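User: Last request for today: this protein with S-adenosylmethionine, please.
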Amino acid sequence: MKDATAALYIVATPIGNLADISARAIEVLSSVDLIAAEDTRHSKFLLQHYAISTATISLHEHNEQQRSEMLLSRIMQGESIALISDAGTPLISDPGFRLVTMAREQAIKVIPIPGACAVITALSASGLSAERFAFEGFLPPKATARRQVLERLQHETRTLIFYESPKRIVASLQDMLLVFGGERRACLARELTKMFETLITLPLVELVEVVSNDPNQQKGEIVLLIEGQAKVADSDEMEVERVLQILLAEMPLKQAATLAASILGMKKNKAYDIALKLQQK
Ligand code: SAM
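Assistant: Here's the final one, the structure of the complex with S-adenosylmethionine:
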């Protein structure tokens, strides 16, 4: 196999099923000079499975700065290095951001080798809108901070995606029920690509019940997806205009938009845009 060009390769690996790796990823991992892995013992299993004998070195959140300097100096001397994480795409709730940033600052070529990622895998089969979505990573473990994050996202219209620990899945779902209400659809995507793969999409009130009453649904690796807040429909837009016109006759634009947004449960900037258009008519 020909040697890989001197560069930093960001290589996605499987999120469960070992077959979910690209031919190009195997070729790169076999031909680079060194593989930087989040946990070398964990990755050994994958590398052995594909008979990849490339040397490995650890790169995790506690040694990323100092390891990155060493790895980049090796690339500058002509070596090729691949970064992998324990599962899926590096940097997605995984180490590598400092390494990539430093590589780019030093004009080192960074080459992505795409593949599995739990966010995208879950979204593709959840039945929730994949047109626009926001990945929020892990929610804070403490209840107060978690609720604050959820409250900030209450009016988000894009599909929301979280990674969640099985230890906190019930508590998080209960908080989501409080903040988003029972009617919003949500999807629990568990153990993707593995033996006990499960995707359940239900209104939040029903999902909380199913998960709380079944300890099996509280196990393994979990992605949680929540439908975004419904957008103002065209028919509702006429109502927004009607309310804004009344308010605009009585008060300045900014105040009218703020009041309309809170009366109609919509985003302030959306109400502001409509108010602005009305004033310009
Ligand atoms: N870099 C990874 C990726 O591309 O998806 C994510 C790494 S993050 C440290 C690990 C979290 O991803 C898990 O706690 C879980 O929330 C989610 N995850 C990873 N593999 C999964 C799977 N097979 N099924 C469901 N969720 C998974």
